[in-house]
Design brief:
This protein is α/β, with parallel strands linked by helices and 273 residues long. It is 33% helix and 19% strand. The strands form two sheets. An eight-stranded mixed sheet has the order 5-4-3-2-1-10-11-12, with helices on both faces. Strands 6-7-9-8 form a four-stranded antiparallel sheet, covered by helices on one side. α3 packs parallel to α10 and α7 packs parallel to α8.
Length: 273
């Protein structure tokens, strides 16, 4: 880099425009690359009601075009695979990793595999969900069968109480906490996260992109760093989407490219074709 270059030029890769060089390099070998996406806040806007969330306009078509040409195209989400399949099941070649990798479908949800070591925690999670709903009747308590998410987006004043309650119950039931935007989640204490998925799925590729918006995506960014360090020539691109809100802002510090909102993702993906 030219040491006399102006500061704004040095910062260019942190913008959508700065992605041009990354796209050019990737497009030349697209069939050797992997693309990994979070869902909420990345391929969809954040909504008060998690069940109402849908992909942004153009998102499904953009993923379909990418999946037809890239080596790996996958969604890696805290959502269950069944939820993702309802929205992306028609995309041929799209891999779905749900519940931070506890569930996996190689075929858009037609078949689903659950990590066998996670299954024994289903009754524990059911108990936690019931207790959480009793403790916080005004909060949205999301039952994902193998994880329990306590949302406080509709009432931020609940955050201290939910954080304390979740910490206590995670210790009592031997569960692990996962923090996100306006939510805290209790899940099985397994070494499975978005980073583990990316490490496994992107190994041996020429490069990989990861698109995320929240703290739960940091392990995926770290996985790309690890692959770049271990595989000479591996091209890693970390994209942070709409991270101005709350805890998600920390992700931007580790990104190569910043997009202002989920609606910008299809536009960027279209540039590969």
């Amino acid at each position: 880099m030219d040491e006399n270059a102006p500061q704004d030029a040095a910062e260019a890769p942190k913008s959508a425009a700065g992605a041009d060089a990354q796209v050019t390099r990737t497009a030349a070998r697209l069939s050797e690359y992997g693309f990994f996406f979070d869902f909420d806040g990345t391929l969809s806007p954040i909504q008060q009601d998690p069940e109402s969330v849908q992909p942004v306009p153009g998102g499904v078509d953009a993923l379909a075009a990418l999946a037809a040409n890239a080596r790996v195209t996958a969604i890696v989400s805290a959502r269950p695979v069944a939820f993702l399949a309802e929205r992306f099941g028609g995309v041929r070649g799209l891999r779905l990793h749900g519940l931070y990798g506890l569930e996996y479908s190689p075929d858009g949800g037609a078949t689903v595999t659950t990590a066998p070591e996670a299954e024994p925690y289903a009754p524990v999670i059911a108990r936690v969900v019931a207790e959480a709903r009793e403790a916080f009747p005004g909060a949205l308590i999301e039952d994902k069968r193998l994880s329990c998410a306590l949302h406080f987006r509709t009432d931020p004043s609940l955050e201290p109480g939910i954080e304390a309650w979740a910490t206590l119950h995670a210790e009592a039931y031997g569960l692990r906490l996962q923090h996100g935007r306006m939510v805290v989640e209790l899940k099985p204490p397994l070494d499975t996260d978005k980073g583990a998925v990316v490490l496994r799925e992107a190994a041996g590729l020429a490069g990989a992109w990861y698109f995320g918006d929240d703290l739960g995506d940091l392990p995926a960014f770290a996985a790309l760093d690890k692959l770049a360090a271990e595989q000479p020539g591996f091209h890693a691109v970390r994209v942070a989407v709409g991270t101005a809100e709350g805890r998600g802002a920390a992700l931007a510090e580790h990104a190569d490219v910043l997009l202002d909102a989920p609606e910008s993702v299809p536009t960027l993906l279209d540039s590969f074709h």
